[in-house]
Each structure stands twice: as structure tokens, then as C-alpha cells.
Design a protein that fits this description.
The protein has about 700 residues and is mainly α. Helix 4 links the parallel strand 4 and strand 5. It is elongated and about 160 Å long.
């Protein structure tokens, strides 16, 4: 049982009532129900005819499988019950991996079954409380519940809630038709290895990474066309194709993608491994273009590809006898010749001979994969499994080895282990999702594989839709933050349109791309928004700084009575900027727009204050200089008057016969001296002192 499965479906058949209702067919009904449940779920070790116990990964799968079977077989029983409920008591229980199941649901004699009505699905309290979350990615229509006591709830399904599920790939079995043994190279039964179409391909022919972009309906039809008429499509491959031609043709894309499932067992992979200059496995898988640096091996592989076996053996023998470091690929070449001429048993013997020659990691993984596949096809399942175990111990992350193990688990009927491994692989390797969808080896567990793949697809589709919804909401919000013609907003709108068109195709890879790119678009929306938010904060801070500067200027301005309107404009600006800052912190589009409007109005006010301040500074300068001039003038006049009077007083004491004595006694001359000092020399000196002070400032 997979650790991912968390739904226990417990069904207690009421054999007495069933045999009365369907005397001859009740046992067959229960057996067929058990068989159907095995296809989709995992039967518990304690399950028996008294109490059927099956585990499912989700309630949708359990409910759908059960209800479809009951609806389909009810009429086939030719019962006379009409609308009478089928005598089955049913409970769905949610279990956690770290806890044990509640014993009451696993005990057919527990009291909980005594009053349980037949034909109705009951769910436990844990499922009832988690229903919305569990069914978030379900295709079931909304349903209702009613309490039935003992912590159980009756599930009432909406009309039409249960519909037949169309498989993702209806024609998977076509690739497995034929009367021959599975081809070692590709797995098909319609041809011998010597006629395998994979021999026409090189490592550069890549399709598995592109086939996932086909919508499932188109993939289904192309798959049917390819495997219903393989000869025609094989002729196209034989004529020579390019990678671009493959991607333009759905049938070629499907066939080449199918062949890539087992690419590591094909001749093109041996070519790449032989001439790849690196020793690591991943370097071979990545299919970088390599140049042949060994003429004998190149010619040997070419001859093998076109069926010239004697010549191929001759070239491989020459390389082997030369005792070069390429003896390993030469021996593997012998094994492929043996496969096409003598059969699998001879190939296996030669591969076992080649195993000791594998010295590099890529060679050790490669020979193990080849041997495991040979053992598997020859029926030696335990050897195939043991070989893969050895490889995975040394190379736990080798995807090809893990997928080989998955194929072995399926053939060994280890269903739970195979499903768990597939679930892990397809989460990280989207190409393996497509491989699992097309691989005929997985036919024995097709129902479970389809359920896993469909659940994965629905989950990714739901995630992608959520991402698009978030991205669209983010872009709508950005309309408040950005101008409609902003390059960033236009780019995001264009990206959203492309993603919406991709998700409408509903191919698996398109859905994965939309999920990934949608998350990127959501993040880009946040980045744009954060950039505008930070820009707003910066502008608010700049406006606050300008306002503080103006407030400081106003506080030290000495002529406030002349410019009262400056203060009238200044003080409301502080409140406006505080309001804009509060709105900005709300981080919402409408709040941002209001904050911008308030900020722009405040900036206009600050601009007005700036213009007014120029006039105020001029007035302040004029008034300051006038006051300083007046002060200087007063001082110079007083000083001048004192100086003139002192001079006159001094001259008045000069002897009368001296030339200067007349000045000291001449009243007119004294008046003129005082006048010149007061109205000429003092103003000039005061003006000079004022100009000097202004220059110094």
C-alpha cells in the first residue's frame, strides 16, 4: 500500500439479505466487486468476504469505482429489487500514515455496523470536516451530508455526480499487439529487433520532451493512427527525418516519443555512450552531439544498424583484439549482433561477458540496464530485480534505473510499490509522465496508472488555474498602481493572454508550463507593485523632508506677519503627508491611488511654498539690509558728529594767528562740516558697511 493513500473504503456485504435478493448471483456480485476494487485500489491484508478493506489515494477514486460498479451491475443482475438498496454497508475513513486505522471500521462485528443503513456511503468525521480540501481537485459535483450518529455522516451525491471516466489514452494496448516476443529495443510485439524502427533514429531525435504538448484528444488519435498502421509510419522514419519534422507531425511525435521510453536499450544509445568523452551517466543521457573517434567501432555500429552482421562482427573483433580501452562497447556490439541473429539467450551470455569490462560509471549502469532487460524478457525476474538493486545502491538517483525497477515491479505484480515509485518519478520528471502514459509494460495496472496520472493532471490543472487567477487579480490590481500604457503592465497582460491560450489546450506540458510561468507572473506582479510602493514611500519621505525644511524656514522667519498665507499652507501639508503614509501602508490599489492623489496635491502646495519662499527671502533680505543700513547710518552719523565736534573744539583752542584758527571759529564752515558728515560721508560709509556684510554672508 502506498504511503500516499489515505482513504480506507470498508464494505461489509450483508450476505443474508443479498442471497435473499439475488439467490443465485450474490456471490458473483461480491466477487466481481472485489475484483473491480482491486483495479483502482489496494486491498488490505485483512480484507475478506466478510469485510472488504481497500485503500485509495483520494475519496473520488473510491466513490467513483464503487458507484460505477453498482450502477452497471444492478441491472445486469436482473433483480426484482427495483429501487431497493444493494445490501452493502459502506464506510469511508480517513487514515493518517503515522497512525493505525480505527479498529471499529476494521471489525465486522463492531457495534458501529449494527444500525448502519445499506446502500449508502457513510464518511467519518475526519473526512466530513476535510471534505472541501479533499475534493478541491475532484471532478465530482458538489454533494451534501446528513448526520447519522456515531461520528458518521451520510453522503448524498448530486444527480449526475458519478460519470464514466474517459481514459487519458484509450488505445494504449495497440502498441502491444502482435504475436512476437517484445522487442528488446522498444517493447513492441509487431516486429523482430532487426526490423525495429528505433534503428532509424539518433540521439538528436527528441520527442518525449515535446509529445506532452499534444492535447490528450489529439494524442489519443495520433496514437491510434500510428499503431494501427505501423508500416506506413516506419517508412517515413526510414526515409530520414529531422527533429523539426518530428515536432510538426503528431504521428511522428507519438511514435518517436514511444520509442524514447526504452531509448537506453537501443543502438543509438550505444553509439552515444561509445563516443561520449565523459565517464558520467548523465552526460550520455543528455545526448550532446558526439564525434566518432574510432573508425572500427564507427563502422561496426553502422554495419549493425543496417543489418550487415558479418562485417559488424569483423570490426568489433578487430577492436576487441586490439586490447584498446573500447573493448566494452565492442563486446556489447557483439551482444546486439547476437540479439538480431541468434536470440536473447545468446545476447545475455555476451552481456555477462561484457560486465567485467565495464570500468566507468556510465558503462556499469549501462550493462546493468541491458542485463536486467534481458533477464526480464527471458523470464528470470529475480535476476532482473537483483541487477537493478545493485545499480541503485551505487547510483540511487539514476532515473533510467528507477524506471527499469518500476517495469520490473509491474511484471512481478508488486502493484503498490510500482504505483508509489511512479508517483515519485513523475513528480520530478515530466517526460516520465508521458512514458508511463504510453508504456505497454504498465498495461497490467492500467487503471491505477490512469488514476495516478489523472489525479496528477487534475492537481496541476487546478494549480495552474489558481496561478492564472492570482495573476489576473494581480494585474487588475496593478491598474491602480500603474498607467494603462506602462511597459511593465503591457508586458504582463501579454504574458497572461499567452498563458490563458496555453491552458485552453489542456495538454499536460502546457498545464505544467502555465503553473510554472503563472507563479513567475504572480511574483513579477508583486515585484512591480513593491517597486511602485517603494517609489511612493520614497516620494512621501522626500515630500516630508521638503515640508520639514519649509517649517524650519518658517520658524526662523522674522517677518511672518507679512506672509501669513505661508503658514496657512504649511501646516495642513503635514496632516496630508501623514494620511498619504497611512494609506500607503495599507498596500492596496485603491489606497495607493488615494495616497498618490494626496501626495500630488501636497507636492503642488510645497511647490507653491517654494515660489512664495523666494519672495519671502527677497523681502527678508531687503528688510535686513535696510535695518542694518539704518543701524550703520545711525552709528556713523553719531560717530561723525562726535568727530566733527571734537575737531571743531580742538581748532577753537588753536592760537588766533594760526591758519586753522579761522575754521574753529567759523559757524558756517562748522555747519557745512556737520552737514557733509551727516548727509554724505555717513550714508556712504553705512552703505559700504552694509554691502560688505552682504558680501560676507
Amino acid at each position: 500500500m502506498s504511503t500516499e493513500s489515505s482513504i480506507l473504503l470498508a464494505i461489509k456485504p450483508q450476505h443474508y439479505q443479498g442471497k435473499k435478493l439475488f439467490p443465485e448471483r450474490w456471490s458473483a456480485f461480491v466477487s466481481e466487486l472485489r475484483s473491480q476494487l482491486k483495479e483502482s485500489g489496494f486491498e488490505d491484508s485483512d480484507s475478506n468476504e466478510t469485510l472488504l478493506l481497500f485503500s485509495f489515494g483520494n475519496p473520488t477514486s473510491a466513490i467513483t469505482t464503487l458507484c460505477q460498479f453498482i450502477n452497471q451491475t444492478k441491472s445486469a443482475l436482473d433483480c426484482q429489487a427495483g429501487d431497493t438498496a444493494i445490501p452493502l454497508q459502506i464506510i469511508l475513513h480517513l487514515s493518517q500514515p503515522e497512525t493505525k486505522y480505527t479498529l471499529a471500521y476494521r471489525n465486522p462485528r463492531a457495534s458501529i455496523w449494527e444500525l448502519l443503513g445499506p446502500g449508502t456511503i457513510h464518511v467519518c468525521k475526519a473526512i466530513h470536516s476535510s471534505w472541501q480540501q479533499l475534493m478541491a481537485k475532484s471532478s465530482l459535483l458538489p454533494s451534501t451530508f446528513s448526520s447519522d450518529g456515531d461520528g458518521l455522516f451520510k453522503l448524498h451525491l448530486a444527480p449526475g455526480a458519478i460519470t464514466a471516466k474517459d481514459p487519458l489514452l484509450s488505445y494504449r494496448s495497440l502498441s502491444h499487439q502482435g504475436d512476437k516476443q517484445p522487442c528488446f529495443y522498444c517493447g513492441m510485439r509487431s516486429h523482430q529487433p532487426s526490423q525495429c524502427p528505433s534503428k532509424y533514429l539518433t540521439m538528436e531525435h527528441d520527442a518525449l520532451s515535446a509529445v506532452g504538448y499534444l492535447p490528450f484528444a489529439q494524442l489519443n488519435q495520433a496514437y491510434k493512427n500510428v499503431f494501427s498502421n505501423q508500416d506506413a509510419i516506419n517508412k517515413v522514419l526510414a526515409s530520414g527525418i529531422t527533429s523539426s519534422q518530428i515536432r510538426k507531425n503528431a504521428e511522428l511525435l507519438v511514435l518517436v516519443g514511444f520509442l524514447e521510453i526504452n531509448k537506453c536499450y537501443q543502438l543509438r544509445f550505444l553509439w552515444n555512450l561509445t563516443f561520449c568523452r565523459f565517464s558520467k551517466w548523465q552526460a550520455v543521457v543528455e545526448a550532446e552531439q558526439v564525434e566518432a573517434d574510432n573508425k572500427r567501432l564507427q563502422l561496426g555500429l553502422d554495419c549493425l544498424r543496417v543489418g550487415k552482421y558479418p562485417q559488424a562482427e569483423q570490426f568489433f573483433e578487430q577492436e576487441f583484439q586490439a586490447k584498446s580501452n573500447r573493448r566494452f562497447p565492442a563486446t556489447v556490439g557483439f551482444a546486439f549482433v547476437a540479439l538480431e541473429t541468434q536470440g536473447l539467450a545468446k545476447m545475455r551470455n555476451l552481456l555477462e561477458t561484457a560486465q567485467p569490462l565495464a570500468t566507468q560509471p556510465k558503462e556499469q549502469i549501462y550493462i546493468a540496464l541491458l542485463l536486467s532487460r534481458a533477464y526480464d524478457l527471458l523470464g528470470d525476474a529475480w535476476k532482473a530485480r537483483d541487477t537493478m538493486k545493485t545499480v541503485l545502491v551505487a547510483h540511487a538517483n539514476c532515473t533510467e534505473a528507477m524506471y527499469r525497477r518500476l517495469q520490473i515491479e509491474v511484471k512481478e505484480n508488486c502493484v503498490a510499490e510500482a504505483c508509489q515509485l511512479l508517483h515519485v518519478l513523475m513528480l520530478d520528471q515530466r517526460e516520465l509522465y508521458m512514458a508511463a502514459l504510453m508504456d505497454p509494460v504498465l498495461l497490467p495496472i492500467q487503471t491505477k496508472v490512469e488514476d495516478l496520472l489523472l489525479t496528477q493532471y487534475n492537481a496541476k490543472l487546478s494549480n495552474a488555474q489558481d496561478c492564472l487567477s492570482q495573476a489576473e487579480q494581480g494585474i487588475n490590481d496593478l491598474n491602480f498602481w500603474l498607467d494603462s500604457q506602462d511597459p511593465g503592465l503591457l508586458s504582463h497582460n501579454a504574458t497572461l493572454d499567452k498563458l490563458q491560450k496555453k491552458i485552453e489546450r489542456k495538454s499536460y506540458f502546457d498545464v505544467l508550463d502555465v503553473e510554472h510561468k503563472g507563479k513567475g507572473l504572480v511574483a513579477a506582479n508583486h515585484q512591480l507593485k513593491e517597486a511602485k510602493q517603494n517609489e511612493l514611500y520614497e516620494q512621501i519621505n522626500q515630500a516630508k523632508a521638503r515640508r520639514e525644511e519649509n517649517a524650519s524656514f518658517w520658524n526662523r522667519y522674522r517677518y511672518q506677519m507679512v506672509f501669513k498665507n505661508f503658514g496657512t499652507l504649511l501646516f495642513p501639508a503635514e496632516k496630508s503627508l501623514q494620511e498619504a503614509s497611512t494609506l500607503a501602508k495599507e498596500n492596496a490599489g485603491e489606497s495607493y491611488k488615494k495616497a498618490i492623489d494626496i501626495l500630488r496635491e501636497t507636492e503642488q502646495t510645497l511647490d507653491s511654498l517654494c515660489h512664495l519662499r523666494t519672495r519671502m527671502e527677497l523681502v527678508s533680505q531687503i528688510c535686513d539690509n535696510a535695518l542694518h543700513f539704518t543701524k550703520n547710518l545711525t552709528l556713523t552719523e553719531i560717530g561723525g558728529a562726535i568727530l566733527v565736534n571734537a575737531l571743531i573744539f580742538g581748532l577753537s583752542h588753536v592760537p588766533e594767528n594760526h591758519a586753522l584758527a579761522a575754521i574753529g571759529t567759523d559757524p558756517l564752515l562748522q555747519k557745512k562740516a556737520l552737514f557733509l558728515t551727516a548727509f554724505v560721508f555717513s550714508p556712504i560709509l553705512a552703505l559700504a558697511m552694509t554691502i560688505r556684510r552682504q558680501i560676507q554672508r
